[in-house]
Design a protein that fits this description.
mainly beta, 4-stranded antiparallel sheet, 3-stranded antiparallel sheet, 1 helix, globular
């Protein structure tokens, strides 16, 4: 399936955080939010676009989720219409986050 190939290949070319056991960029967490598949992990690009550890798949292409985070995302969930991410980061979306961040309605 072409879409599945693009889905898997799109999260490939980023740099990893310096964590034991990581050999290559990876998706560590997946969830569905606003009809998109959201991936978080140790990647910094989606193909040729900067993605900074979190990206959205719309069914045919990856796109960055805003400016992302400054470190690896290891957990994703949706709670009360917000996308929540946890991981090894201090900022998300350009704001102080201290390892947990939320996207969605204020």
């Amino acid at each position: 399936n072409v879409a599945e190939g693009a889905l898997a290949a799109g999260l490939g070319l980023g740099e990893l955080e310096e964590e034991p056991g990581d050999a290559e960029p990876m998706a560590a967490a997946l969830t569905v939010y606003n009809d998109s598949l959201i991936a978080g992990g140790g990647f910094t690009t989606t193909g040729s676009d900067n993605a900074n550890y979190i990206a959205a798949w719309n069914g045919s292409a990856w796109s960055p989720l805003g400016v992302g985070t400054d470190g690896t995302v290891v957990a994703l969930t949706v709670y009360i219409d917000k996308l929540l991410a946890g991981g090894y980061f201090i900022t998300a979306g350009g704001d102080t986050a201290n390892c947990i961040a939320a996207w969605g309605p204020k």
